[in-house]
User: What shape does this take?
Amino acid sequence: MKIIIRATDILVSIIGLLVLSPLFIVVAIWIVLDNPGPVFYRQQRVGRNGKDFGLLKFRSMRVGSDKAGLITVGERDNRITRAGYYIRKYKLDELPQLINVLAGDMSLVGPRPEVRKYVDLYTPEQRKVLSVRPGITDYASIEYIDENRLLAQSSDPDKTYIEEIMPAKIALNMRYIEHQTIGEYFKIVFLTISKIVR
Assistant: This one.
């Protein structure tokens, strides 16, 4: 099953990169015209077996904004650029992760990779999510598609994330990990697309 999923990852990421290449160019130009700086943002995340890798995103925030905190609070976080607001809203910032998928750092479907700060807080049970390749989408991504809005309503976003959202997301991660099939894989892909469109 793992071989089939990996082969599907490679095929889908290659097709996706080819088909979406015009969109990549448009988004890249939009980012630079709106706020000069790098087109891509690379952040260290924790992957399979606890190994770090550089996760790629289209840059949606001003250069150096991550120094003010790792959590984005609300869609109108003042660190987000004008272009970045729409890039995030329609999940376009995640598209460069197809490169991570092709490289083998990620899968199309799997637990969203966390930064080391939060992984270090995992219990031994929660660390089971590190036994598989992290993914671009999963059940947790679908359930918490409006995570930024939830955090914006909290008086202590970091605490809310650690104590409430992170454990709930990990529980949803396990749902896929314990039932990894090609059917579940495509079900999550189509549910994600449907959620974004709606």
